[in-house]
Design goal:
Radius of gyration: 24 Å
Largest sheet: 4 strands, antiparallel
Structural class: alpha+beta
Number of strands: 6
Shape: globular
Distance between the termini: 70 Å
Amino acid sequence: MDWYSDTFFHTRWLLKTGMAFIYLVAFASAWKQFCPLLGENGLLPVPHFLKSRTFKDCPTLFHIGYTDKRFYVVCGLGLVLSALGLFGFLDSGPLCLSIASWLILWFFYLSLVNVGQRFYGFGWETMLLEAGFLTSFLGSWKVAAPASIIFCFRWMLFRVEVGAGLIKMRGDKCWKDLTCLEYHYETQPLPNPLSWHFHHLPKQFHKLSVAGSHVVQLVIPFGLFCPQPVAGWCAALMLVHQAWLIVCGNYSWLNWLTIVLCLSGMGDSFLGYPRAVVPTSVAFTILTTVITLGVVYLSRDPVRNLLAKRQRMNTSYNAFRLVNSYGAFGSITKVRYEVVLEGTAEHFPAEDSWKEYHLPAKPVRTDRLPPQVAPYHLRLDWQMWFLPFSAQVVGTQVRVFRHEIWFQRLVECLLQGDHPVRKLFSHDPFPNSPPVFIRARFYRYRYTSPAERQETGEWWHREPVGDYLSTCYLKD
């Protein structure tokens, strides 16, 4: 074992290729969804949001004035740069061009996240920005990969894993008694094709899975700061754990990006491709040292958060989203409720005239196998999962504490027949003219048992609870 002699040429190639792929997915997701959600006529319009924001507290290119056309220019350039990075072209030229290209890519995505409001409020957005910033300083192929930046990646991975582990141990008691997975596969935001099967595995298997997850997230990350091959094997164990999570659920690019971070723990010697040390310039060494010291300085708040009794989850401490706190699923939903939108074209609607809207990955139809969509991020689908948390079931009644502004705007757009918003749905029951009325029903969903599945062919069983939104029309 050796602490210092490893090189990171192949490690850097894997990191940059992986980061370019994640950027490509992120910009592709934005290309289709950003304008109906956040555009000039979107559910939460960017121009309105920026009226009360300055560049200091919300750095974004759109302070020059937001239009949907300008968004498509930024997003299109982001897609092009991501594709060039994926095939290595961003790093085949001069060092300064490599750094500038990756920084531009990072700032383009920062410009989207900082105006994305609820629809960009996920932990993997800040993960991508922090990792993307570090990627900018890995250097081109013509210089040695800086070990200090590689270790910044490992420090980020450590915070991601340990943050996720600690938030569980400080959160829901089912993480301590190892029973959380008896619920999680059924109640997670967007189940995938295998989630039903995982849910029906033996309870003892679920307990072993939770215990193994605790070890991987709370013990193994400390090995990242050991010499090879210890660091490499610890990173490999975390990578396998993330691959397991990909198999059993749709979590956007969260697990995919964490896998990219895991690659930082594998030096060239561990990968089986040792390289001779390549000289690098003094200026680049000074630059990467300054960046590393900056990461150390900005780590004060995340470290305090890790040690705090009331740990905050997925928190940024600066407007540039650098060196953040991470964590996920500190509490587990035990019962799955769904808000299902329905419309009718009749002015005096009979009950059988109501037709359901379907989102691409939400379990509306009980006979539909949940799809695999990750690493792609379906933002409206995710936000619809959060809606039941703003309501309480009291007996046979649904008490709604508040209706989110974006949800009110969504209903309005559907009543107007807004084409971009309608395209966010996989099934629009009113393709030719908008409905006269819309309502939102509140259902309790559960997986069918294997016997029910064999008898009925359905993946879900649902029971109506009440109305999340009572019948309304456009003038409402």
